């Protein structure tokens, strides 16, 4: 292509002259400032046929993208970003499901973004939807996965520590690592964090197919929201080591209030246009399952004094021996 | 054939002055000399005595142990990766965690399979995580580094078992605690010295945190190891 142009020699100069005239008469839409090479600029003012043959499709795509970016420059920043993201994502070729790049697109995230999303899950601001405000079309799997993994080990270790602290005074107690609780914690946390979003996403998809005003988030965004909402339970489970029952219930209420409201704020705008019973039932189910996880963890891993000391009186000799002391927490 | 091309490309017109006379025969050998015949031709590693093979691998493993104990930014660990060292360390650690209180199969410490799975599965997941975040380190190199950096924790396990022979009181707990915390810090520091360079700076913390969690869990397993008591009367039921 270039070879033929060079061989034309003098005609190139003529081309230059005619092109400048065209540029002077052209409307702003014709002038595309895509490439920064002089020859490319001149070519771009030419009729489309020459342009297409001189370039491959990828650079033509880049032209369209930059076109779309410049068109959106007058809009507000928030909307502009969303539209641009939509346009760009529509043109990006989706990598194959079985290729490594497909999964790499879910880890396209920096440290600061992860920290920002964690903060967003802890502090619900009314009007700021977690998905729209924090995820911004870039859901990641790093946060949900590692928050779940941390939660599993935190709950198991804290439960073990609290049992140890509880029974420390008992001379008959021999410390046990209770490692099997890690498996139990692992299964329950990962099931909650992956199956509940799946069910919720499926439900929303079904409702949105029958009721067009009900929109739905993508599966990844749902998983992302649920994963980040579990973060509050990590410090909660560490604080549960303190052996006061009323404190544990207070912490549950606090955690539920914070992360539950983040979940509700995220899903309410999506479901509120549905029929009254359906929307109320959905929100109630979300909150109920969230609370169930917390209460279940507390009851299984963190035992209170009255629960563990129950079987002791039956084993004691029935002489009413005052040597039996019950530890009151 | 050169002349035929020259006719169609006027750009190469200058070269048409070069003529190849047909009188001069153009011949020669195309084979590229290999250089000195390699040692392997006469003596492949299949023929060497078994002792030499084993010693060579052991020396490589030993050298890497040295690198882990004194972590400097050398690329030897990464370049010549091998998985013998991690396997050795993993099996040793899992076996040493076995002699614990086994009165109840439910309440005891981790089983052999649980330790094995946590170490290998954990390493694989951390490596995948690092690669998905855009790391430049290869899969097996990362497994190699993570496995070798368990060495300080294995040493801590040996020390803990020796300390536990002396008793299980508070003093022994404090000593064990200090030893385990020190080796946990050493392991994490050693592995991040090798792994963190392969990531972009604004994702380093994302890669280091799972490594931290991994060694924390292993340290927890080591610290909570409690030996079995000789008298069964003190054991409380599940």
Please give a handful of descriptors for the protein shown:
heterodimer, A: 329 residues, mainly alpha, 0% strand, B: mainly alpha, disordered N terminus, disordered C terminus
What's this model, at a glance?
Chain A has helices spanning 2-8, 10-25, 38-44, 48-54, 57-71, 77-91, 100-104, 111-122, 130-135, 142-166, 180-210, 219-229, 233-239, 245-271, 276-301, 305-309, 312-315.
Largest sheet of chain A: none
On the 0 to 100 scale, the average pLDDT of chain A is: 72
Strand residues, percent of chain B: under 5%
- What's the number of helices of chain B? 9
Shape of chain A: globular
The run of helices and strands of chain B is HHHHHHHHH
This entry's quaternary arrangement is heterodimer
Share of β-strand residues of chain A:
under 5%
What ranges of chain A have pLDDT less than 50 throughout 5 or more consecutive residues? 2-9, 48-60, 67-86, 308-318
Q: What's the Cα radius of gyration of chain B?
A: 29 Å
Structural class of the helices, strands and pairings of chain A? mainly alpha
Helix content of chain B: 55-70%
* Structure classification of chain B: mainly alpha
Terminal CA distance of chain A: 86 Å
- Structural Rg of chain A: 31 Å
What is the tally of beta strands of chain B? 0
Treating each run of at least 4 consecutive H or I residues as one helix, how many helices of chain A? 17
Termini of chain B, distance in Å? 90 Å
Which pair of chains forms the biggest interface, and how many residues does each contribute? A-B, 30 and 36 residues
Task: State the order of secondary-structure elements of chain A, H for helix, E for strand.
Answer: HHHHHHHHHHHHHHHHH
Family (chain A): Belongs to the YIP1 family.
Domain Yip1 (chain A): 122-294
Transmembrane segments (chain A): 141-161, 182-204, 216-242, 249-271, 277-301
GO biological process, one term (chain A): vesicle-mediated transport
């Amino acid at each position: 292509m270039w070879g033929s142009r060079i061989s034309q020699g003098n005609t190139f100069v003529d081309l230059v002259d005619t092109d400048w005239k065209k540029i002077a008469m052209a409307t702003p839409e014709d002038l595309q400032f895509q490439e920064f090479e002089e020859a490319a600029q001149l070519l771009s003012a030419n009729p489309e046929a020459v342009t297409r043959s001189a370039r491959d499709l990828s650079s033509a795509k880049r032209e369209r993208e930059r076109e779309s970016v410049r068109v959106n420059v007058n809009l507000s920043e928030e909307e502009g970003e969303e539209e641009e993201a939509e346009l760009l994502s529509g043109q990006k070729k989706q990598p194959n499901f079985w290729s490594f790049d497909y999964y790499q697109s879910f880890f396209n995230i920096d440290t600061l973004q992860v920290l920002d999303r964690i903060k967003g899950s802890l502090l619900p601001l009314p009007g700021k939807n977690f998905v729209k405000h924090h995820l911004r079309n870039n859901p990641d799997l790093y946060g949900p996965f590692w928050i779940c993994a941390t939660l599993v080990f935190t709950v198991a270790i804290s439960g073990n520590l609290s049992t140890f602290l509880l029974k420390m005074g008992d001379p008959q107690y021999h410390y046990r690592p209770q490692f099997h609780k890690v498996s139990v914690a692992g299964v329950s946390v990962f099931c909650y964090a992956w199956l509940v979003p799946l069910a919720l996403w499926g439900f929303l998809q079904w409702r949105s197919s029958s009721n067009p005003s009900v929109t739905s988030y993508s599966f990844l965004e749902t998983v992302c929201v649920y994963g980040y909402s579990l973060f509050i339970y990590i410090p909660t489970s560490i604080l549960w080591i303190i052996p006061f029952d009323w404190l544990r219930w207070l912490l549950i209420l606090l955690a539920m209030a914070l992360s539950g409201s983040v979940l509700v704020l995220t899903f309410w705008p999506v479901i509120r246009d549905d029929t009254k019973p359906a929307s109320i039932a959905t929100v109630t189910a979300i909150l109920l399952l969230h609370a169930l996880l917390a209460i279940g963890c507390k009851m299984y891993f963190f035992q209170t004094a009255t629960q563990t000391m129950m079987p002791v009186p039956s084993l004691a000799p029935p002489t009413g021996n005052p040597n039996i002391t019950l530890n009151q927490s | 054939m050169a002349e035929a091309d020259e006719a169609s490309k006027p750009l190469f017109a200058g070269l048409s002055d070069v003529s190849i006379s047909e009188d001069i025969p153009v011949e020669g050998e195309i084979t590229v000399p290999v250089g000195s015949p390699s040692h392997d031709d006469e003596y492949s590693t299949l023929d060497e005595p078994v002792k030499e093979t084993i010693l060579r691998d052991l020396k490589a493993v030993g050298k890497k142990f040295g690198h882990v104990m004194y972590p400097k930014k050398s690329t030897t660990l990464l370049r010549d990766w091998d998985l013998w060292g991690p396997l050795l360390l993993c099996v040793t650690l899992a076996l040493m965690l076995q002699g614990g209180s086994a009165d109840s199969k439910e309440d005891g410490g981790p089983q052999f399979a649980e330790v094995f799975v946590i170490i290998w599965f954990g390493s694989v997941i951390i490596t995948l995580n690092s690669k998905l975040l855009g790391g430049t380190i290869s899969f097996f190199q990362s497994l190699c580094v993570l496995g070798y950096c368990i060495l300080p924790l294995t040493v801590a396990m040996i020390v803990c078992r020796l300390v536990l022979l002396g008793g299980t009181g508070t003093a022994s707990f404090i000593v064990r605690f200090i030893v385990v915390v020190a080796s946990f810090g050493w392991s994490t520091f050693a592995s991040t010295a090798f792994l963190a360079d392969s990531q972009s700076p604004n994702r380093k913390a994302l890669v280091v945190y799972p490594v931290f969690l991994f060694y924390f869990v292993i340290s927890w397993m080591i610290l909570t190891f409690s030996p079995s008591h000789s008298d069964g009367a003190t054991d409380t039921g599940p």
